[in-house]
Amino acid sequence: MNHLLRSHAPITDIAWTQLDAEGRSRLVPALAVRKLVDFSGPLGWKHSATNLGRVSEIKAPGENLQARQRRVLALAELRAPFAISRQELLDADRGATDLDLTSLDSAARRIAVAENIAVFHGWAEAGIVGITGATTHEPIVLGKDYASYPGHVAKAVEILLEAGVSGPYGLALGPQEYTGVVETTEHGGLVVFDHLRQILGGPIVWAPGVKGLVVLSLRGGDFLFESGEDLCLGYSHHDPDTVHLYLEESFSFRVATPEAAVALTAGAVG
User: Fold this and answer.
1) Does 266 score more than 90 pLDDT?
2) Fewest beta carbons within 10 Å, which of 110, 128, 204, 205?
3) Do 216 and 222 touch, CB atoms closer than 8 A?
4) d(CA 155, CA 180)
5) How far apart are the first and last CA of the chain?
6) Phi/psi zone of residue 190: left (φ > 0), alpha (ψ -120 to 50 degrees), beta?
7) Which residues contact 219 (CB under 8 A, 6 or more apart)?
8) Full-prediction pTM beyond 0.90?
9) In this structure, are residues 244 and 238 in contact, taking their beta carbons and an 8 Å threshold?
């Protein structure tokens, strides 16, 4: 038994298998962070802090002594609660494959969006400075049409190259920008999505929760995500009609190289 208490839930192995599969299917597309930054772990639920490799001077408890304290970044825990009808779980045991798992889908989206926001835009309460807040480069203001995006992204890549940051490069786009890019064709018939991919040399990622666009280097070592407990399903409690569950994770994030990303601020797009 562990802290997830899955063995206490009135859920069979068959139903757990369906819940786990549904959770994965909903989480994987939305977890933009993990497609673009360095992922370390999972290191386990007991892992509590990330070593920053730095110290702070502190007062020693005696004369003629020097004292320092190691600096760490505490991992933050995220939990998205939801509830499932016990009747749906019983139907899973009967072989039903069309279960109503909309509450799980909603929880998966909420926690994925929160992870994206924390990494790209920061989470002050957890001591996390996001990529757009850490970058040393001024943001690029986008034009009013998606067909102009390749020029702006090329400018961002040029800024990174001038800063000595090599590629390949990745691009995170908010949902509206992603849809616009996919659907837009430039003058001459080239699809904007394909043009951007040629400029970057790396992936273009749908990133719910991201505001505008972020171009960042994928060379490694610049953006560090440390996972304690990776995303998993746990049990809270139940009543005669409903089982209360949650999705949970613990993580830290830090920017090692602030100059390795450029933010692009979306304007009104027609």
Assistant:
1) no
2) 110
3) yes
4) 20
5) 55
6) beta
7) 165, 166, 167, 168, 260
8) yes
9) yes
Distance CA 193, CA 174 (A): 14
CA distance 71 to 94: 53
What whole-number distance in Å separates Cα of residue 225 and Cα of residue 116?
Answer: 11
Residue 267: pLDDT band with limits 50, 70, 90? low
Token pair 């001459």 is at which residue?
A: 188
**Which of left, alpha, beta for 225 (phi over 0: left; psi -120 to 50: alpha)?**
beta
Q: How confident is residue 270, by pLDDT bands cut at 50, 70 and 90? A: very low
**Structure token digits, residue 46:** 């007991």
Smallest Cα–Cα separation from 100: which of 175, 177, 22, 182? 22
- C-alpha 209/C-alpha 227 separation (Å) is 20
Sign of the CA dihedral running 106, 107, 109, 113: positive
Name the maximum alpha-carbon separation found in the chain: 77
pLDDT digits (tens, 9 = 90+) for 213-265: 999 999 999 999 999 999 999 999 999 999 999 999 999 999 999 999 999 99
Six token digits for residue 103: 């509450």
Exposed e or buried b per residue across 175-199, where buried means at least 16 C-beta atoms within 10 angstroms of its C-beta = eebbebbeebebeeeeebbebbeeb
